[in-house]
Design brief:
Elements lengths: L5 H12 L1 H4 L8 H28 L1 H4 L10 H64 L3 E6 L4 E4 L1 H6 L4 H4 L12 H15 L4 E8 L5 E12 L5 E10 L1 H23 L3 E6 L4 E4 L1 H7 L3 H4 L4 H4 L5 H7 L10 E8 L5 E12 L5 E10 L1 H63 L6 H32 L4 E5 H15 L5 E5 L4 E5 H18 L6 E10 L2 E8 L30 H11 L4 E5 L5 E5 L20
Parallel strand pairs: 12-14
Antiparallel strand pairs: 1-2, 1-5, 3-4, 4-5, 6-7, 6-10, 8-9, 9-10, 11-13, 14-15, 15-17, 16-17
Helix pairs in contact: 1-3, 3-5, 14-15, 15-18, 16-17, 17-18
């Protein structure tokens, strides 16, 4: 505003300086710029002031001295009026322009401020969203409490823990969720007050989740400060350490169990570092050495054992010579009582988690008594071998004697029997006229007795051969052998009505000669004891009993009383009278043949209802007779 009067003065000076060139033409020419500049600098008031001053300066009063011929005319007055109007118009125009510019600048400022506020709001919202995502992504429970215990902020983990939502929890009291004994809630409130007062505290708490399962939490509580430095809230970060506690408890239990095993085992157990110094020694090792573990820990073998034993111990306990190998060896040492003892030791390497060798372990079992027992066992074995050799020699001699006896029976006894039978037959045929009826009867008895004696000798020889004949096992068609035996029996008495039911395809692994003896005797036995039946039925078959193949021969003959079943297979044992032929050797022969195959034989029967003979061919004999089959032809 102070420069406003100077602008018209400057314009007047410029007009005077240009008077020579311009003359009296356009006296207000230099004053228009002054008015515009004044309006720009001082607004509408400055423009009016510059217009008035310019009009005065350009008027007649101050222009008269410039020339005597100058006079005020109506044109001059009109120019003055036009100048005044133009000055006012220019002042108004400039004022309007200035105000428009100010409004535009203010609008721009307001728009910029609004944009900045919006950007700041977006930034704050992004930061809040980021913070919320971070808090919600945290696995632990995070929440903010005010002084009254109201939840101001809760993360998703805490909402999930209580089986609800964040919106449901925020604004509620923490005591609606943390329910427990009064002393616990009092302690928590006291901790919260201490935190709001400016302390940072850690605490542990066990609380149930929505399902009632108790979880263990470790929490850190810290104050939340306002901008003015005051504090009326606290931040709580809780981590669920239930699994860690359980793992620690399990680890502790395993450690206790391992310590119990190490302490309770009778074997000596030790652990050494790579320098050969003891790190662990169990109770058994203490008892053997006669020293406490405290005397061993941190010391090496050179410091603990007699000098004469150290080289051997060091050789056997080398560390790191082959880290991948676990060794098993025997060593000897002197125990606390001065006795030499033998140990079977297992030694191996120990590694850390990175695979670096950290030492070795050893488990030593006292086998002194075992070694003594082995020595005694070897002595007994030698003695037993000698006895077996002697017994084998005796058995070989007995076999030779039996063979000689069999030869003697076969030749020396058969010859007199043949003579007796021949002479009796000659007497009966050639001297029958001179012999009385009683004499002929006696001769018949002599012939029958000699024939029976011959059969008995044959059966005894067969029994002996069955016991000592070599066993030649091969696949055998037992059905075919039984069929051949049945055909031979039919030839002995073609008039009998006997039906044989022989299962087809019974295959066994055994000695063909012995199995033929078995089937011949069993079928002959069935043939003999069904002689009184109008229609005799004899069955040969096989079935599974307790997973084992069991073979059987059944008949519908006379049968036997089960109380005498133990006598069936003894030599010369007969359960029936003289009405049935036989000498009691056949079933004994069958039993020996079955036993030669590693099997067993037994019988079941009932007087008047037939009998069934069962047998197995295997390494393991049945310890008890299986249940009688239900699919027999005689059931």
């Amino acid at each position: 505003m102070l420069l406003t009067p100077l602008l018209p003065a400057g314009a007047a000076l410029s007009r005077v300086m240009c008077h020579g060139a311009l003359g009296a033409i356009s006296p207000f020419l230099t004053f228009y710029p002054a008015v515009v500049l004044a309006a720009l600098l001082a607004g509408f008031p400055g423009g009016l002031m510059a217009t008035a001053l310019s009009a005065c300066l350009a008027s007649y009063q101050w222009s008269v001295p410039l020339g005597a011929s100058f006079s005020v005319t109506s044109v001059d007055r009109l120019e003055t009026v036009v100048f005044l109007v133009s000055g006012i118009f220019l002042s108004v125009l400039v004022e309007v322009m200035l105000r428009a510019r100010v409004r535009a600048e203010k609008a721009e400022v307001r728009a910029r401020c609004a944009a900045e506020r919006e950007q700041a709001a977006l930034t704050i919202q992004r930061e809040r969203n980021f913070l919320r995502q971070v808090i919600d992504a945290a696995p632990g429970n995070i929440f903010v409490l005010d002084a009254s215990g109201q939840l101001c902020l809760v993360n998703e983990a805490m909402a999930r823990f209580y089986g609800t939502s964040v919106k449901e929890m925020e604004g509620k009291s923490i005591h609606e969720y943390l329910q427990g004994p009064k002393e616990v809630t009092d302690r928590l409130q006291e901790e919260n007050r201490a935190v709001i007062a400016g302390r940072i505290l850690g605490s542990e708490l066990s609380i149930p989740d929505a399902g009632g399962r108790v979880h263990h939490f470790e929490s850190v509580k810290s104050p939340v400060y306002e901008d003015d430095g005051s504090c009326d809230k606290l931040l709580v970060v809780s981590n669920d350490v239930t699994e860690r506690r359980q793992a620690e408890q399990a680890l502790k239990q395993n450690q206790e169990l391992l310590n119990s095993i190490i302490s309770g085992t009778p074997d000596a157990i030790y652990v050494k570092d790579t320098a050969g110094k003891y790190l662990l020694l169990n109770d058994a090792a203490e008892r053997i050495i006669g020293k406490k573990a405290g005397q061993f820990l941190g010391r090496s073998d050179r410091e603990l054992f007699p000098r004469q034993e150290v080289p051997a111990i060091l050789r056997e306990n080398r560390i790191g010579h082959d880290p991948a190998e676990v060794e098993l060896f025997e060593d000897t040492m002197t125990d606390a009582q001065g006795k030499r003892r033998t140990f079977l030791t297992t030694r191996g390497p120990l590694y850390d988690l990175q695979g670096n060798l950290t030492g070795s372990f050893g488990i030593a079992r006292d086998i002194t008594e075992q070694k003594l027992a082995e020595e005694e066992f070897h002595k007994l074995n030698e003695e037993l071998d000698n006895r077996v050799a002697e017994r084998t020699e005796q058995l070989e001699l007995a076999v030779k004697e039996q063979e000689a006896f069999s030869y003697s029976v076969s030749h020396d006894l058969r010859s007199p029997l043949r003579h007796i039978n021949s002479y009796a037959a000659i007497l009966r045929e050639e001297q029958s006229a001179q012999i009385s009826d009683e004499g002929r009867e006696l001769l018949d008895r002599i012939c029958k007795a000699s024939s029976k004696m011959g059969n008995l000798i044959d059966d005894l020889l067969e029994l002996a051969r069955t016991s000592r004949a070599p066993l030649n096992e091969e696949p055998i068609d037992l059905s075919r052998i039984a069929t051949i035996s049945s055909l031979m029996l039919r030839q002995t008495d073609k008039g009998r009505r006997v039906e044989f039911l022989i299962a087809e395809g019974i295959q066994v692994l055994g000695d063909k000669t012995l199995m033929r003896i078995v089937m011949d005797n069993l079928l002959s036995n069935a043939w003999k004891y069904t002689v009184q039946e109008k229609i005799a039925l004899i069955e040969v078959g096989m079935e599974l009993m307790d997973g084992q193949e069991v073979f059987y021969v059944s008949d519908n003959g006379t049968g036997f009383d089960m109380q005498y079943k133990d006598k069936l297979f003894g030599p010369f044992q007969r359960l029936h009278g003289a009405e049935f032929e036989g000498n009691g050797i056949g079933l004994a022969t069958v039993k020996r043949a079955i036993e030669r195959h590693g099997g067993t034989i037994w019988a079941e029967g009932e007087v008047g209802n037939g009998a069934t003979f069962y047998f197995t061919l295997g390494k393991e004999a049945l310890s008890y007779p299986p249940q009688l089959r239900q699919n027999s032809a005689f059931s």
